[in-house]
Amino acid sequence: MTMLLWIAAIALIVIGVAGTVLPLLPGPILAFAGIALAAWIDDFARIPVWLLGVIALLTVMAWAVDYIAGAMGVKRNGASRLAIIGAVIGTVAGLLSGLWGLLFMPLVGAAIGEYIVQRDLHRAGKVGIAASLGLLIGTVAKVAIVLTMVGTFLFALLFSR
């Protein structure tokens, strides 16, 4: 039984790491679930509860990056409030529509929002591109956070005791 639990924990971690870049998979949450399962299997001997709490905090940070990154890219470019709302809506719609949707829907949402306010197609395009760049930077940050989570887990697992 313990071997099956370890296999499940490892599978959750691997799927979680893949899910940081694949749409529709809650990567950081799955990785955390695998780490928490592994800590529980080991009776928190090598991965103490406090460390699991730190990893949980990293999980929340990684999850939040998904929703904030596109909006921050738009805001940094001086976009209107409606463009920021459009980028957030585009990000959510992109999560539901696959990789291409995830890449382009924040751009489209921000551009539409900015166009409604400014009636300037050039400005709307710039704001849309800023949303996409923000999302790309957010994805890189999310990957870094998840790899930090997994690295911390592996270090504690391999080098404790």
Number of strands: 0
Q: Helicity, in percent?
A: over 70%
The overall average pLDDT, rounded, is 86
Report the C-alpha radius of gyration, rounded. 19 Å
Structural class: mainly alpha
Overall form: elongated
N→C terminal distance:
24 Å
Main sheet specs: none
Task: Give the count of helical stretches.
Answer: 6
Low-confidence stretches: none
The succession of helices and strands, N to C, reads HHHHHH
Protein model, in words:
Helix 3 (49-76) runs antiparallel to helix 6 (121-159) and helix 5 (98-118) packs across helix 6. The protein is elongated and about 65 Å long. By secondary structure, the chain is mainly alpha-helical. The relative contact order is 0.16. The longest helix is centred in the last third of the chain and has 39 residues, at 121-159. It has six helices and no strands. The model has no long low-confidence stretch (mean pLDDT 86).
Quick description:
This protein is mostly helical and 161 residues long. It is 85% helix and 0% strand.
What tags apply to this protein structure?
mainly alpha, 6 helices, 0% strand, 161 residues, single chain
